[in-house]
Amino acid sequence: MADLWLQKLRSSHKTCLVQDGRRKIHFTMSDGMELAEEYDLKSGDLLLRKWKRKSTLGGVGKWEYEIGEQPTPLLNLDTEGLVESNTNPVFLRKDTKSHYQWRIRNLPYPISNYIIKKSDDGQIILSTVNKKYYKKFSIPDLERCALKLEEDKLELAHANNTLIISYKKPQSILEMEKTFEQEIKKMKANEDGEMDCTPS
């Protein structure tokens, strides 16, 4: 199934842009869904992935962030009193080459307070002994490739008020990502200007 997802990426219409030390690629799938990814030019690390799906009425939807942090909207003085506290937990995904990884900032509790497990529907459940935090989430990459979540691959670490959840990538995913990384490095791209992505 990883090969099928790779083929879907290959067959999509792509444009690329090199800007601010990043290679930015925009995909338009055959079903009209849009995907945007940004890679670090030096390391090749995937820094951002976001999706835009058509709304139920056929209109243009909003970008949904899968990897990376969504930009913080500019402060509106009229609603300043409603701004979310910067001490609230902040959940975001930032992968490494070998692991899917999520970071939750502003969680001061010791590592012994966290409980992580696989739910009956194949998602990840994070909870705390003191009942101060709860989060249920999935790994879309596994779902796209029809791979099941394996609970024993989940790892926890905690430092500087940040909880780090890691999941070792399956070998089939690693091979697919390596193949695709080699392909995108061959794509032509404009400096500060989009163009169709084609192998050089």
Quick overview of this protein structure:
By secondary structure, this protein is α+β, with helices and mostly antiparallel strands. The protein has three helices and 14 strands. 15% of the residues lie in helices and 38% in strands.
What features would you highlight for this structure?
single chain, 200 residues, alpha+beta, Immunoglobulin-like, 7-stranded mixed β-sheet, 4-stranded antiparallel β-sheet, 14 strands, 15% helix, Protein DPCD, DPCD
Task: Walk me through the structure.
With 200 residues, the protein is α+β, with helices and mostly antiparallel strands. It is globular. The two termini are 28 Å apart. The mean pLDDT is 88. It has helices at residues 2-11, 140-144, 171-185; strands at residues 13-19, 22-28, 34-40, 46-52, 63-67, 90-93, 99-105, 114-118, 124-128, 134-137, 154-159, 162-168, 190-191, 195-196. It has a single domain (1-68, 88-186), classed as Immunoglobulin-like (Sandwich), CATH 2.60.40.790. It contains three helices and 14 strands. The strands form three sheets. Strands 1, 2, 3, 4, 5, 13 and 14 form a seven-stranded mixed beta sheet that branches. It has a four-stranded antiparallel beta sheet with strand order 6-7-12-11, with no helix packed on it. A three-stranded antiparallel beta sheet has the order 8-9-10, with no helix packed on it. This is Protein DPCD. It comes from Arion vulgaris. Pfam families: DPCD. Belongs to the DPCD family.
